[in-house]
Amino acid sequence: MTVPFIHARYTLPIAVDYRASARTNDNQFFTNACTAFATLSTAECFLMHHAGVEMQFSQRHNYYHSRILNGNFPNDTGSKGALAVQVAENIGMAFESDWPFLEGRDLNAAPPATLPTVKAGFVSLKYDWQLGEDAKIREMKYMLAEGMMITVSAKLMWDWAEYGMNLGYKGTQGNTPDFVHQIAIVGYNTQGFIIENSYGGDHFTLFPYSCSSDLYSAFAVTRVGDVKVTMSDPDLLENALRPYVGHPAEFRAFMQGLAATSPNWATFDRYMKRHGDTAEAALEFCRVLNFERVSTLATWVDSAS
Q1: Domain 2-229 has CATH 3.90.70.10
Q2: pTM greater than the 0.90 cutoff
Q3: CA–CA separation, 298 vs 164, rounded Å?
Q4: What SS3 string covers 24-40?
Q5: CA 145 – CA 220 distance, rounded (Å)
Q6: pLDDT by residue (tens digit) across 255-299?
């Protein structure tokens, strides 16, 4: 099943909410397995939303393998979101029914190599994050609007849950964070991102946009098994351009950042200046080209010259 990537969406929906497709009974208990919980939650939500298929994947299986990759096995000292994603992509996701979490008990038992698995696909959100919080928020919103849930690392204070469960996350407010937690983003509204948390209680809460600087290392799910959002390299570059519509100064900074990666930058730069030098012009250029044959920025430039 292929879910088409929606091109040229300039106007974001006011709100996107996938809570109805998310699994709500997860609890990591006393463990530090949040990376597995958040990563697999995005895959489960993606599958339910796009295909109406309810599956529960094994956090215990993912956490075992990601700690081995992290080099801290057999200690229950957490892992990294990027490694949980790597396990889901390369080793695959086992089913909860085959290798249950057991409330965090027996985390170090080796899962059988014969367990059936489903592989996922993710894309790292990295194009806009160096250019400020507004660009970061817009990029995440665009991915969510396309039906791709996000697993992301968050800097937290110890008392975040007291505020987060009922009133929304309050942010580190410039303080040194007490710890890092992996969360799943399953929507947004006018106030912030809707997050799914694996600590139990009210699993959903709000992460205000004013606290976006506490988020880092984000991955959006694009595929679970044969259910996928089709995204080629041009799709990814186009998606990186779209948040700059209406933001010319940020767009120019982004394009200058690409200069070092393209030997034909001067030609592309001249093309853009002739056509308005805006994100809107760049996106129009995207649509003119045959995306089936264009895969790199250098090819864009060659086509424009």
Answers
A1: yes
A2: no
A3: 45
A4: CCCCCCCCCCHHHHHHH
A5: 11
A6: 666 555 555 556 556 666 666 666 666 666 555 443 333 344 444
